[in-house]
Fold this sequence. Notes:
- The chain has one helix spanning 85-116; strands at 7-23, 26-40, 46-61.
- Strand 1 (7-23) and strand 2 form a beta hairpin.
- It is α+β, with helices and mostly antiparallel strands.
- The chain is rod-shaped and about 105 Å long.
Amino acid sequence: xxxGIPGFRIDIRHAGVxxxxxxxxxxxxxxxxxxxxxxxxxxxxxxxxxxxYDTYADQFSRSLTASLATxxxxxxxxxxxxxxxxxxxxxxxxxxxxxxxxAYLFFTLRSERAEDN
Length: 117
């Protein structure tokens, strides 16, 4: 720093993003930042220090995850959680099976009642 002007130093201890599944097509993002800030006298002496730790969380569509990361900064990138097999395979299969069973029972019972009359 030029003579007579105090300096300021920031040391980042932790910076990162974590993504977890929130719902079927959405992701929950948790951002954490921890840093130390130091105010220095013009001669290099430490005048004051402070520690900051902050977190932030939000939720958004899975389709936005790539646009919210900056490739130049590793701190902004996180692995997108994969859809679990239950969500991808089991739930649609059960929904289709229940629909087919309901349609079968509806038409079978309706036909039997029509035959009885």
